[in-house]
Design goal:
The protein has 469 residues and is α/β, with parallel strands linked by helices. It has 3 domains: 2-264, Rossmann fold, CATH 3.40.50; 309-410, Four Helix Bundle (Hemerythrin (Met), subunit A), CATH 1.20.120; 416-468, no CATH class. The protein is built from 15 helices and 15 strands. The protein has a 4-stranded parallel sheet with strand order 4-3-9-10, with helices on both faces. Helix 6 (203-215) crosses helix 7, helix 12 (359-379) packs antiparallel against helix 13 and helix 14 runs antiparallel to helix 15 (440-452).
C-alpha cells in the first residue's frame, strides 16, 4: 500500500509505527464562520482515507482539532460585539452539523485549543530551555535559525526566505521569519496567564501540543490542505522535533485546492460558497462523488456543471441499487448463477485504492461494474437471489462503506428535502430568465412569495443561492 509523502516528494510504502494501530491528525477549522466547500474537500477526502485504512484492517485513531482562539475569532467578536467564546461555540457546533450532513464519520477526538493551554505552555518552556525560543516583552518567538532542517517539508530555502521576508518594525525579532509561540495580550482579547505574562498561544503551537497530547510525540499521518504546508506544517515540524528530539510525522498528506475559474477558493478572496450553500442544491453523496472523481492532491474546479454530473452519477448508482433490492426482496428465486467475476472487480478496486488512494479509478471501476452487471441482468432470466446479494455486497463495501457515495439503507426514504430544493432551484432559474427578459414584476413576485414561505434568495455576481429562515 503506497502513500504520497509530501516530506519526501514520492510515494512510499505505508508502514505504521505500531501496526495495526494508525495515528492520524487532521488540521481542523478556525471556528469564526461556516466552512466553505473547499474546506469540505479536505474533510471528505480525509474521511475516505480513514475509511479505507479501516477496511484494510488498521485501527485508526483520528484527531481533528478545533482552533477556538485566533485573530479571526477576535475580529468577529469585536465586529458582532459578542464574546469570543460565544462566536467559537456557535461555529464549532455548525462545523459538527456540516460534517454530519456530508456523511463524514466523527473523529475520535476534537480537542479545543483553549482546553490545552497547559500542554502548549510546556512545549514552549521546553523550547525556551533549549535556547530555541526567546521572550521579548511577553511575546515568545521561535528562532528558526536554530533548526537546521527548517524548510524540509515545503522545500523552501531558509536563505531565500530571509531575503524575501519583510521585517515587521513593531516586533523586535531576531529574524523576520521567527514565528510566534506566545502573544502578549492586547486590550479586550481572549487571554490566559503564563510564565511570560498574560497572553494567548500562537496558531502553530496549538497543533503540536494537541497532536502530542492525544496521539504521542510521533504520529503516522498528518493531513491538511495544501495551503497549510507553509508556514503552518513547516512550523509544526520545527517546534515538535526541536522540543522532543524525534521524528514528528511519518507521512504528510495534503489535499489540493478547490478553484473557481482556476483561482483558489478562499474566504479572503471572497470567491467561496459555504458547504451549507452547496448542500441546498446537491446531496452529500453527489458532493463526495464530485471530490472522489479527482486525485486528492490535485486542483479541482468547482462548477454547477460538474456537480450536476456527479448528482446524475449518484442517481445511476441508486437506480442500480434499487434494481438489486427489488430482485432480492422477491419471494421466489431463480436457479441460474451468471458467469460474472465480482471478486475480480473487487480486487481491481483494492489495487487502485492501494496506490495512494486512487479514488478516480475506483469510481470509474464502480461504474464499469454497474454497466457490466446491468448487461448480465438484462440478458438473463431466472437469476439466483444469491447473485444479486453478491452484487449488493460489492456496492456496499466500495461505494458505501469506503467512498460514502451511496447509502443503501436510505434508498426507501422519500427524498422530500431534495425534491423541495429542486423545486426552489427551478423557481430561481425561472426568475433568472424573467430578469433577462426584463420582466422584473414577475421576478420580484417569485422572490417575495418564496420569502413569505421562509426562503430567502441571495443574489451575487456568481449566481443566486437560497437559505431558510
Amino acid at each position: 500500500m503506497l502513500i504520497y509523502n509530501t516530506l519526501t516528494k514520492r510515494k512510499e510504502e505505508f508502514i505504521p509505527i505500531n501496526p495495526p494501530k494508525v495515528t492520524m491528525y487532521m488540521c481542523g477549522p478556525t471556528v469564526y464562520d461556516y466552512f466553505h466547500i473547499g474546506n469540505a474537500r479536505s474533510f471528505i477526502m480525509a474521511d475516505i482515507v480513514r475509511r479505507y485504512l479501516q477496511f484494510k484492517g488498521f485501527q485508526v485513531k483520528l484527531v481533528i482539532n478545533i482552533t477556538d482562539v485566533d485573530d479571526k475569532i477576535i475580529k468577529k467578536s469585536n465586529d458582532e460585539k459578542k464574546p469570543a467564546e460565544e462566536i467559537a461555540g456557535f461555529y464549532s457546533q455548525a462545523f459538527f452539523e456540516d460534517l454530519e450532513r456530508l456523511k463524514v464519520k466523527p473523529a475520535d477526538f476534537y480537542p479545543k485549543a483553549t482546553l490545552h493551554l497547559a500542554e502548549m505552555i510546556e512545549v514552549i518552556k521546553e523550547l525556551e530551555s533549549k535556547g530555541i525560543a526567546y521572550n521579548i516583552d511577553g511575546n515568545v518567538f521561535y528562532d528558526v535559525s536554530k533548526f537546521d532542517t527548517y524548510g524540509k517539508l515545503s522545500g523552501k530555502n531558509l536563505d531565500e526566505l530571509e531575503a524575501g521576508a519583510r521585517v515587521d518594525v513593531n516586533e523586535k525579532k531576531k529574524n523576520p521569519l521567527d514565528f510566534s509561540l506566545w502573544k502578549r495580550a492586547k486590550e479586550g482579547e481572549m487571554c490566559w496567564d503564563s510564565p511570560w505574562g498574560i497572553g494567548r498561544p500562537g496558531w502553530h503551537i496549538e497543533c503540536s501540543a494537541m497532536s502530542t497530547k492525544h496521539l504521542g510525540r510521533s504520529i503516522d499521518i498528518h493531513a491538511g490542505g495544501n495551503d497549510l504546508i507553509f508556514p503552518h506544517h513547516e512550523n509544526e515540524i520545527a517546534q515538535s522535533e526541536a522540543a522532543f528530539e524525534q521524528k514528528f510525522v511519518r507521512y504528510w498528506m495534503h489535499f489540493g485546492f478547490l478553484n473557481i475559474q482556476n483561482e483558489k477558493m478562499s474566504k479572503s478572496l471572497g470567491n467561496f460558497f459555504t458547504a451549507r450553500d452547496v448542500q441546498q442544491k446537491y446531496s452529500a453523496e453527489a458532493i463526495r462523488l464530485f471530490f472522489a472523481q479527482t486525485n486528492y492532491g490535485g486542483p479541482l474546479n468547482f462548477s454547477d456543471e460538474l456537480l450536476g454530473a456527479a448528482q446524475k452519477g449518484t442517481e445511476k448508482i441508486i437506480n442500480f441499487a434499487e434494481r438489486l433490492e427489488e430482485e432480492i426482496t422477491k419471494e421466489s428465486s431463480g436457479n441460474f448463477y451468471p458467469n460474472f467475476d465480482v471478486k475480480k472487480f473487487f480486487g481491481e478496486f483494492e489495487k487502485v485504492m492501494d496506490d495512494d488512494f486512487n479514488t478516480p479509478q475506483a469510481v470509474a471501476l464502480i461504474f464499469d461494474f454497474i454497466r457490466s452487471a446491468n448487461k448480465i441482468i438484462s440478458e438473463n432470466d431466472n437469476i439466483q437471489k444469491e447473485f444479486y446479494l453478491e452484487l449488493k455486497s460489492f456496492l456496499k463495501k466500495t461505494a458505501e462503506d469506503i467512498l460514502g457515495i451511496v447509502h443503501l439503507d436510505e434508498l426507501k426514504k422519500p427524498p422530500m428535502f431534495f425534491l423541495e430544493n429542486d423545486l426552489i432551484n427551478l423557481l430561481i432559474n425561472i426568475r433568472e430568465n424573467l430578469k433577462k427578459e426584463k420582466n422584473y414584476t414577475m421576478a420580484d413576485l417569485i422572490r417575495n412569495k418564496l420569502h413569505e414561505m421562509g426562503i430567502i434568495l441571495q443574489d451575487s455576481k456568481t449566481g443566486t443561492t437560497f437559505k431558510r429562515k
